[in-house]
Amino acid sequence: MFLNEINSHNLSKIRHQKSLILGGSKGLGCSISGCLPNSKSLSRSSSVESVDLSQPASIALVEKHLLSFGPDLVFYVAGGGVYGEYFSKPMHSHRWTFEVNFFRPTQIADLLKKSGFKGKFIYIGSAIAERSESLKCISYSYSKKLAVKTLLSLSEEDLKVRVFSPPYMDTDLLPKNSWPRLESPQLVLNTQVVAAELLKWLAEDSSKDFKTLSEDFDPRHFDWIQRFKYTLPIDKNF
Ligand SMILES: NC(=O)c1ccc[n+]([C@@H]2O[C@H](COP(=O)([O-])OP(=O)(O)OC[C@H]3O[C@@H](n4cnc5c(N)ncnc54)[C@H](OP(=O)(O)O)[C@@H]3O)[C@@H](O)[C@H]2O)c1
Question: What's 93's domain CATH number?
């Protein structure tokens, strides 16, 4: 239904491209892969081959699939992190968060850049985490922010990076008792709606100029909150 609205020529180009989805077994990644018939998904529960992106050694598996599959688009969707006071959580959980949200995607970007990859590398950010100063999710939000800033420091000639930052979504990542679910369910979006918007944005991509970037606005970054009417309550500490 949503995909009908998308420019059909560019969309069909996207649909026919080979896509590697890192973290496509559920949630947003699963909705993206559902729109892309020519895609391959890798995650810990992957039927192709299990890949745990929190492990530095997983880069070798990712590289193997990049070489054998030869994707045009690489989506980095995997992400997560702990919620609560920083020092009440085990240190390995903070390390996990930085490995999955920051180190692996930047390592993959480096690999793609060095291999002269001509396709697009799409990183899923978080419109909420990128604005968050909450001490309760400091490792999640700062690892996401750091990844966004670092990836966008690459020039278009180095690697075609796109960052897509959705708001709250109805997935396993968002706890059942979290305030958006309990108090503002309209802020929690369906992943199919979000995936359709991502593909629509990528389909429009070819008509944009990514060479002249201003400091105020980077067209390689889709920030849901800037794009749409999506108002966060002022009394919440994100
Ligand atoms: N949900 C939200 O409210 C929200 C809001 C803004 C941004 N985001 C971002 O959106 C992205 C997708 O999140 P989601 O909400 O769809 O979460 P999700 O339903 O928990 O899905 C996460 C996906 O990543 C994979 N994954 C997680 N850890 C992995 C690891 N160590 N190695 C390999 N694969 C791993 C999972 O597969 P396996 O379990 O099979 O490994 C799954 O396919 C994340 O980057 C998240 O930060 C989410």
Answer: 3.40.50.720
Give the domain range for residue 91: 3-227
Smallest Cα–Cα separation from 41: which of 28, 24, 56? 24
Q: pTM for the whole thing?
A: 0.95
pLDDT tens digits along 61-119: 999 999 999 999 999 999 999 999 999 999 999 999 999 999 999 999 999 999 999 99
Ligand 1 site, CB within 6 A: 23-29, 43-45, 51-54, 77-80, 100, 124, 126, 128, 166, 168-169, 171-174
Closest C-alpha residue for ligand 1 atom 21: 27
CA 176–ligand 1 middle distance (angstroms)? 16
Strands in 39-42's sheet, in edge-to-edge order, are: 39-42, 19-22, 73-76, 120-124, 160-165, 221-223
Q: What angle do CA 227, 223, 209 make, to 5 degrees?
A: 85
Does residue 121 lie in a domain region? yes
Distance 21 CA to ligand 1 centre (A): 11
Structure tokens at 13: 């180009």
Q: Which atom of ligand 1 is nearest to the CA of 144?
A: 47
Cα within 13 Å of Cα(100), Cβ side: 24
